[in-house]
Amino acid sequence: MFGAVQLGVLAACVVLFVPMGMAGWHLSRNKMLFFSGALFITLAVGVHLSPYFPSFSHFLMSPAATVVLGDSRGSCLSLLHDIVWDVKPARLMRPFSNTDGNTNGSSKSSPYYRELSWSWARSKSVLECDFQKVRSSDASDLLNGSWVVVAGDSQARLVVLSLLNLVLDSDQMESVKSDLFKRHSDYGIMIARIGLKLDFIWAPYVSNLTDLMLRFRQNVNLPDVLIMGSGLWHMLHVSNASDYGVSLQKLSSSLVSSLPYSRELGNDGPVTGSAPIRSQHLFWLGMPNLINSMLNTEEKREKMNNLAFYLYNMELHKSRILRQAGGHFLLLDIHSLTQSCGPQCTEDGMHYDGAVYNAAVQIVLNALLIESNQKL
C-alpha cells in the first residue's frame, strides 16, 4: 500500500507532466508562454505537496522567516548601559573664604576632587540608537504630569537626588536636600510647574517593596514610573541569599496581582499569555559594585564580599522579576555603571560619585523615550 507521501508525489507527477506533455507541442513556438505555464504548474504542485512536508510548511509560516523592519527598540534598550567614563586625576581644590574670614577647602572630607564625566560608547550600534543626555527642559516636558516613585535604600535616594538636580534649580535644591536626607525616612515633593509628583519610599528590604505593591493594589493606583530595588541591607543584616530569593519570589507574585493586564490577552489576572499594560514604566535598581577593601566597617567587609554579591545577584535573576528573564522590570544596572567607573568614583566602596546616579537617571529617561516612541 502506498503511503501518503508516495501518493502525493504520484499525484503531483500526474498534475505536472501530463498537462505539460499535452500542451508542450502547442506551446513550443511561444517559449514565454511555455515557461509561464510551467512556473504556474510548479507552484501549484508545491502547494499540493506542502502538507506532506510539515517542516517546510513550518518554515514558510514561522515568524523567523518574516523580515521585520524598523523596530530596534529592544536592541537599543539593551545598549543603554554602554557607557564610558573619563576620570581625570584628583586636584587640590582652590580654597575660598567664608564671611568670617576663615579659609576652607572642600566641604567633603578630602580637599581633593576628581573631574568625572561620561558618555555613551561610540560603537556603530550605540550611535544608531541616538541616545541623548536629556536637558532640564526636556526632562520636565517628558515627565510633565507624571507620578514617579523611587523605592529602596540609600542607592535609591541618590537616584532621587540626581533626578531632582535635573528638574529643579540650585536654590530649590538647597531646601530639598535637608528633607530628602533625613535618616531612614520617606520623602515626597510636588513640582507644580511641571505637574510632577515624586515620592521616595524608604524600603531597604524586599518585604518593604512587597508591602508597597500591595498598597498600590489596594488603592487601585500605580505610578507612571516606578524605580525600586533592594538587597544591600539584606546582605548585611540577614546574610542569607536563599532567603533573599524567597522574598523576591513573594514580590514577583505581588507584582503579578498588582499590575493591570491587557484586555486582549486576559484581564482576569495572571493567566497564561497575559501581559501587563505598558502604561507603567518599571525599573529594577540593581546593587552597586562593592569594593570590599574600601567598605568602612569590619562587618561590611566580612558579609558583603564578592561571593555574597554573586549569590544575591543569582537569586535576583532566578526570581524572574527582570524583563530579561520574562518579568516586568527593566534592569537599571548600577553594578555595571559603578564597576566601569571604578574605585576612583567612590569613597566608601558602596556609594558612588553623583555622576554615576546622573548617568542612571539619563538611562531611565532615554528608556522612557524609547518605550513611548518619542524623540527630543
UniProtKB/TrEMBL annotation:
Keywords: Membrane, Transmembrane, Transmembrane helix
Compartments where located: Membrane
Domain of life: Eukaryota
TM stretches of this protein: 33-53
Protein name (record): Protein ALTERED XYLOGLUCAN 9-like
Organism of origin: Rhodamnia argentea
Membrane in keyword set: yes
Gene: LOC125314162
Main location: membrane
